[in-house]
Specification:
Elements lengths: L4 E5 L6 H7 L2 E2 L3 E3 L16 E14 L2 E10 L6 E7 L2 E2 L9 E10 L4 E9 L5 E10 L6 E10 L4 E10 L18 E10 L2 E8 L5 E9 L6 E6 L2 E10 L4 E12 L8 H11 L3 H18 L2 E2 L2 H17 L33 H5 L3 H13 L1 H10 L22 E4 L4 E4 L8 H16 L2 H22 L1 E3 L4 E3 L25 H20 L2 H11 L3 H13 L4 E2 L2 E2 L13 H8 L5 H7 L17 H5 L2 H10 L6 H12 L7 H14 L1 H13 L16 H14 L4 E3 L2 E3 L6 H4 L2 E8 L2 E9 L2 E5 L8 E5 L2 E5 L4 E5 L3
Parallel strand pairs: 27-31
Antiparallel strand pairs: 1-8, 2-3, 3-4, 4-5, 6-7, 6-12, 8-9, 9-10, 10-11, 11-18, 12-17, 13-14, 14-15, 15-18, 16-17, 19-28, 20-21, 22-23, 24-25, 26-27, 28-29, 29-30, 30-33, 31-32
The structure holds beta-D-glucopyranose.
Beta-D-glucopyranose binds next to loops.
């Protein structure tokens, strides 16, 4: 493997799904898994194409209960291209890796150029060898186009090759084995046709959301002797007969256009798709514009980390950019937790944007703004959800998709026991604080006051209002309490001896709620008075409410025990788990919840967490900000208490989420450096090594991927963008970054501010322009760097 490529040698059925996820190509509008074009969905292969924001809701009955799920729809497969040798005796079998002899096989993803290359040599039962080289791209400049070039070579024979190029609408959402009992047929009203001898199309609709989807494909091969169309309701195919001569290459190009009725500026998706496919330029011309678009992306996302870690980070960034590209800025979509790379979590949007937007803010602020606007469009729904729950303000859903209602499943399957269990994770109201946090950090990074004062303020104030109304004063503890929630650690969704779902006084929820209330008050001061008045009139806000916010923000209850912050009230009464015994018995105990439930026990009886919960506070807030938040709440959080807290949870966390390693790596880089690399490494290899045991094949973990890149960008540099300064406070993690690392930022209208960090010094380069100088603040000094200048700063010893 060379730098900038990601490749897999040999055909390995057991790894196929993982490779398909990691070889996904996308452009923000849609993405297609790296499945082989000659393979349909089965136990080994899981082709899938997903259009950002295209969801459909279906009902199912599981465990005797009617449930509803909204899925990101697997739209018709545009890849199919199969082939077989023919002679006078007729056609041989279609060549397929599970039935034919695979002599050579290689998949290679080119990260710099967004290309997937596959090379295979098949041998059929008659000993005929066919070499296949395919180059695939999902176009980064024209988001509605994809293309596949296939070069065939008869290695040891001369004769005819039959090639079938198709659009397959008979696909279902079957990508996640755990969801097999759930309805999966989303595409209906299929219809296929031809618009020219080499141009065929397929259209269909989603069942409930009634999104019209159309694909048109043009398959060309100048050497083909004959071509035929073959159409059914759910499949449009074209047959081509290629004369192959030993040692000579024949090329087939397939270009595909994809539109849905959600697209702006079209009159009909079918007409738009046919028109686009018809006008599409040649493969070479498409390749050219695609490469330029990727070049531009990489310039904005430049990241220079040496060695293997750098190569993995580049892969992570590649997948982030394919899911959330500048095209996303024009869409009504959120951050899908598993990318557009698979069907896990049904393409839903969780709090994972918390790990993604801080990165995007400093490179693609227009994309961050669009992702926040997705939340704003669903503000009304969030207010309705709060009202239905008897609360004021906005209660954002834990899982969100099309219209912003709560999409968390009511039941989930424990594959270990085969039981469907009630799911209380919708009580993770802290997702609202994640939205608020992102609004604020977006504004700090970009200075986009227009957004902050309008959509941003509308959301932030309603989220603050929800927290103030959720907090009830308790005379016993003489503080405000927020009860009946679930924190980031989903293992504790109730007290073990209680019928009531949720736990009380989750430290993470309460501290972030206090932060949100404080920012909301600050925002009221920042707003231009006419705008403040408008908002007050619109949401019925008065001075009394502000008083309540102030009061709550200073006296929310944060429990402590044994000198550490408690994850929630009563946490200390939970039993200790015998970690050693469980690790010995099961090896991998990341999903302790499933293990214990299958044993007839429950994880919520134990001081055992799925992922970072209290420690998330150290991820969100730099040490000084966290300290002052606790002071504001009337507690003292000194270094010793924080270190004890870190140690306490470190020993009691199973890391059943890829986010956990990331957060621990981030926090430990400052709190206990010697241990940081172990966790950062786990986050780094989370997807490539499929650390969570088979889940990457169902979609990448976008939060961890973006988060690892941001670990280098903000975590290790201590980068903060506030008070009109670029603040830096580097913490070394040499195993990750080597002796120096660098990246560029988009900051305060300066495109391409370059930072390079060495063990003992820092270089900041501001590109030449007529903009204002940048203020750079280190813990011990403040300097100004003018456009066109590079400043070298020695780091404090
Ligand atoms: C984690 C959540 C996360 C979700 C989607 C879950 O396993 O516990 O924190 O938001 O996955 O990535």
């Amino acid at each position: 493997m060379t730098d900038g490529t990601w490749s897999y040698e040999g055909y390995a059925p057991a790894q196929e799904r993982l490779r398909e996820s990691l070889c996904t190509l996308g452009n923000g509008y849609f993405a297609t898994r790296g499945a082989l074009p000659e393979c349909a969905a089965d136990e080994t292969h899981s082709p899938g194409t997903y259009v950002a924001g295209c969801y459909d809701r279906l009902g199912s009955v599981v465990a005797g209960r009617q449930v509803e799920n909204e899925d990101l729809v697997n739209v018709p497969n545009w890849l199919p291209l199969r082939f077989r040798c023919r002679d006078e005796a007729g056609a041989g079998p279609w060549l397929h890796p599970d039935t034919a002899h695979v002599l050579e096989h290689r998949m290679c993803l080119f990260l710099g150029s967004g290309l997937l290359e596959r090379r295979t040599v098949y041998e059929d039962t008659a000993g005929r060898r066919v070499g296949v080289r395919q180059l695939r791209l999902v176009h980064m400049a024209d988001p509605h186009l994809a293309t596949l070039r296939t070069e065939f070579r008869a290695e040891n024979w001369t004769g005819e090759l039959e090639v079938e190029s198709a659009l397959d609408g008979a696909v279902r959402n079957t990508g996640v084995p755990r969801y097999r009992d759930l309805a999966d047929l989303h595409l209906v009203h299929g219809h296929a046709g031809t618009a020219a001898p080499d141009l065929f199309w397929l259209r269909c609709r989603t069942r409930a959301s009634d999104v019209r989807i159309a694909l048109a494909a043009r398959t060309t091969c100048p050497e083909a002797t004959q071509t035929y169309g073959h159409l059914t309701d759910r499949r449009a195919a074209q047959l081509l007969y290629l004369p192959l001569e030993e040692g000579r290459t024949v090329t087939v190009d397939k270009v595909v256009a994809l539109h849905t009725s959600r697209d702006p500026a079209i009159s009909d998706p079918l007409e738009a798709a046919v028109d686009r496919a018809r006008r599409a330029p040649t493969f070479d011309a498409l390749l050219d514009t695609h490469l330029t678009a990727w070049d531009q992306l990489w310039r904005r996302a430049e990241l220079d980390v040496p060695a293997e870690a750098g190569r993995i980070l580049r892969l992570h960034l590649f997948h982030v950019l394919q899911t959330l590209s500048p095209h996303t800025a024009d869409l009504d979509v959120g951050v899908p937790a598993r990318g557009l790379h698979g069907e896990a979590y049904r393409g839903h949007v969780f709090w994972d944007e918390l790990f993604v937007l801080p990165y995007l803010n400093l490179h693609f602020p227009e994309v961050s703004r669009a992702l926040l606007t997705y939340r704003h469009r669903r503000l009304e729904r969030a207010c309705r959800s709060a009202r239905d729950a008897g609360r004021q303000g906005a209660m954002y859903p834990w899982q969100s998709s099309s219209d912003g209602r709560e999409e968390t499943q009511q039941l989930h399957l424990n594959p270990n026991s085969g039981r469907w269990l009630p799911d209380h994770t919708h009580l993770q109201h802290h997702v609202g604080s994640a939205v608020a946090y992102n609004i604020w950090r977006y504004w700090q990074a970009t200075g986009d006051a227009e957004f902050l004062h309008t959509k941003g303020a509308e959301m932030l104030l309603q989220i603050a209002r929800f927290w103030a109304d959720s907090a009830a004063y308790d005379d016993g503890v003489r503080r405000y309490r927020i009860r009946g929630v679930v924190g980031p650690d989903e293992y504790h969704d109730a007290y073990p001896d209680s019928d009531r779902p949720g736990i009380d006084d989750n430290a993470y929820t309460n501290v972030t709620a206090a932060w949100v209330l404080t920012r909301a008050l600050e925002l009221l001061d920042l707003l231009p008075p006419p705008r403040r008045q408008e908002l007050a009139e619109r949401i019925g806000f008065d001075g009394g409410e502000a008083e309540l916010w102030r009061d709550v923000s200073r006296s929310l209850y944060v429990p402590f025990h044994a000198g550490v912050i408690s994850q929630f009230a009563g946490y200390e009464r939970l039993a200790e788990l015998d970690w050693e015994a469980y690790t010995k018995k099961y090896g991998d105990i990341r999903r302790l919840d499933r293990i214990l439930e299958a044993e007839g026990d429950r994880v919520n009886r134990y001081q055992a967490s799925k992922q970072a919960d209290v420690l998330m506070l150290g991820y969100l807030f730099p040490p000084a900000e966290l300290g002052s938040l606790f002071t504001q709440l009337g507690y003292s959080l000194d270094d010793a208490t924080w270190l004890r807290t870190v140690d306490h949870y470190l020993r009691r966390t199973s890391h059943g989420s890829t986010l956990s390693g990331l957060v621990h790596g981030w926090v430990l880089a400052r709190a206990r450096r010697a241990d940081a690399w172990r966790f950062a490494h786990e986050a780094l290899i989370g997807d490539i090594a499929d650390v969570q045991g088979g889940t990457t094949g169902e979609g990448i973990h976008l939060g961890a991927m973006a988060g690892t890149v941001d670990l280098v960008q903000r975590g290790l540099t201590g980068l903060e963008t506030r008070d009109d300064a670029l603040r830096l406070d580097p913490a070394p993690l040499h195993q990750l970054t080597g002796s120096s690392y660098g990246f560029t930022l988009h900051y305060q209208g300066h495109w391409g501010v370059r930072l390079r960090v060495f063990a003992d010094r820092l270089h900041v380069t501001v590109p030449a322009s007529d903009r204002s100088p940048i203020t750079v603040e280190l813990p011990d000094r403040v300097v100004t760097v003018r456009p066109g200048e590079t400043c070298e700063l020695l780091l404090p010893g």
